[in-house]
Request: fold
Amino acid sequence: MDIEIHKSISDLTGKKTLSFPEKNIVPPTMPYLWTTTDSRNSALSTLAPVSVALVGASAIHGDKNLQSFFKSFHPPSWAIRDVRLYTALDVATIAPLGYASYLVYKNGGGFDYSDTTAALGIYGLNLVSGLALIPAFKKKNLKWIAINAGIVAATAIAASGAFGKIDKMAGYLIAPYALWTTYYANCCSKRPSS
Reply:
């Protein structure tokens, strides 16, 4: 006759929450805890991508010459020409990235795991590449803009896939940004009509 010995897992209040046999010591699912520290950290994580978007927007909005270059830069008829609409879409798609990166950090075990470190490294490369577009626009270097936009799109797609493997919600949150940067890279690969 097989006798099973049961142990219990208690929550923070000491109440019995789950029983399982000793031979299966790890419960089937770990409890998911979100604390006020997590809320603070996710809010702080959101500041990085939003800051990148706002720095880029302010660089374009503050320079009338750069605005006219930006408008002439998108020759396809389907491309967005209104700088304000473009900026709004840019900020709207980039805003969830910080929260998504925090979900990956928290649920992926932090920098102790190579897949989490790689995913966050790709995300960091994406942010740096996005910032590198500002000097390219200021110099009006079309080749540099097109190459950099391709790097931004490629790292956004890679980050979306890497985030999705660690936390599905994080992958879903970054997917609109990956689509937006792909659209942007496609626009940048077109040369303005002379």
